[in-house]
Each structure stands twice: as C-alpha cells, then as structure tokens.
Specification:
This protein is α+β, with helices and mostly antiparallel strands. The protein contains 1 helix and 4 strands; from the N terminus they run ββββα.
C-alpha cells in the first residue's frame, strides 16, 4: 500500500518509522530514498525495475547502469 504525505508517496512506512521508502519525480525520472537494510533495498529495487519493465514495455534501470 502506498501512503501519501504532503504529496509524496511512501512505501513501507514514513520517515519517522524504522523502515521506509519514499519516491519523488525528478526531471530525469523517479528518485527513491530508503531506510532499510542493504539486502532488503536491493531486493525491493530489483523487483521494482522488473515489474516496471513489464508494465511499461521498455527496460527500466538506473543512470549509473547506462539507462537514461
């Protein structure tokens, strides 16, 4: 479930929780910030990219990996 606070979507809680993910729309695309273990984050973002790729019909990735 996504929760919106001041127009910002949060997954897995909000900034005052121990674990949360926040996203914002930037000129170059979506920007995520997360507070969670590295392994949980890696798992979550990889699944997000796979699901977004399926839904959008084109490869979704990160700029440092060559995606623009």
């Amino acid at each position: 479930m996504t929760i919106y606070k001041n127009g910002i979507p949060y997954w897995f809680g909000q900034e005052d929780d121990d674990v949360f993910i926040v996203a914002s729309v930037e000129p170059r695309g979506l920007s995520f910030y997360a507070q969670m273990s590295n392994s949980d984050w890696s798992s979550w973002i990889e699944r997000f990219k796979l699901e977004a790729t399926k839904v959008l019909g084109f490869d979704v990735g990160e700029p440092e990996d060559g995606f623009m």
